[in-house]
Amino acid sequence: MDIGAINCLSYEDFVRILGNVVERCPVVAAAVWSSRPFPSVAALEAAIDDFIEALPESGKEGILRCHPDLAGRELQSGTLTPESREEQGHAGLDRMDASEVARMARLNAEYKERFGFPFVICARTSDKATIAEQLRVRLRNTHAQERARAVEEVKKICRLRLRGLVLADQNNKL
Ligand SMILES: NC(=O)N[C@H]1NC(=O)NC1=O
């Protein structure tokens, strides 16, 4: 699907197709739909970034809270969204031994206790060792620093999901 086709989608189809570019936050797609037509995918990405940045800090934290833990209960029970499942698998989080799972659970819990939202990182561009290391490093951030950092990760995840949608369809056309 190219940007022209995206611009032609009805509101319902736009939200159905793009509703999870920000994890479990279809309100983001619902909000930017009215800014069509987008001259490029980059412009759509910018509209999403602007929407997120305009949220109050509580809204940004709400978006973060919609993210599942990495290597958490939802991965074990198979209840992740397909996108998250694929990203966590890409980082090797579905191939950890019991001690690695326990270590990640401990760090995730410590992080959530400190900041009040789950640790978010773009798993597709990372691996399990880097993720565990980043969890430890980012635990040292201030609340405001960490919220801003986590929101940047949400935008990165969103860009890759969007490009995946565009690219997947281009491949289908070949
Ligand atoms: N907690 C967290 O970072 N979750 C996310 N990261 C990612 O790449 N996909 C997710 O669902």
Question: What would you note in describing this structure?
Answer:
GO terms for molecular function: 2-oxo-4-hydroxy-4-carboxy-5-ureidoimidazoline decarboxylase activity. Catalyzes the stereoselective decarboxylation of 2-oxo-4-hydroxy-4-carboxy-5-ureidoimidazoline (OHCU) to (S)-allantoin. Residues 75-94 are annotated as: Disordered. Keywords: Decarboxylase, Lyase, Peroxisome, Purine metabolism. With 174 residues, the protein is mainly alpha-helical. It folds into 2 domains: 3-62 and 166-173, UraD-like (Orthogonal Bundle), CATH 1.10.3330.10; 66-156, UraD-like, CATH 1.10.3330. It contains 10 helices and no strands. The longest helix has 31 residues, at 143-173. The radius of gyration is 17 Å and the shape is globular. The two termini are 12 Å apart. The model has no long low-confidence stretch (mean pLDDT 95). 1-[(4S)-2,5-dioxoimidazolidin-4-yl]urea is lined by residues 23, 67-70, 84, 87, 118-124, 157.
N-to-C CA distance: 12 Å
Number of extended strands: 0
Distinct bound molecules:
1-[(4S)-2,5-dioxoimidazolidin-4-yl]urea
Q: Give the proportion of residues in helices.
A: 55-70%
Proportion of beta-strand residues: under 5%
- Mind describing the biggest β-sheet? none
Our count of domains comes out at 2
**Which regions have little confidence, pLDDT < 50, spanning 5+ residues?**
none
Put simply, the count of helices is 10
InterPro entries: OHCU_decarboxylase, OHCU_decarboxylase-1, OHCU_decarboxylase_sf
Biased composition (Basic and acidic residues): 83-94
GO biological process, one term: urate catabolic process
Family: Belongs to the OHCU decarboxylase family.
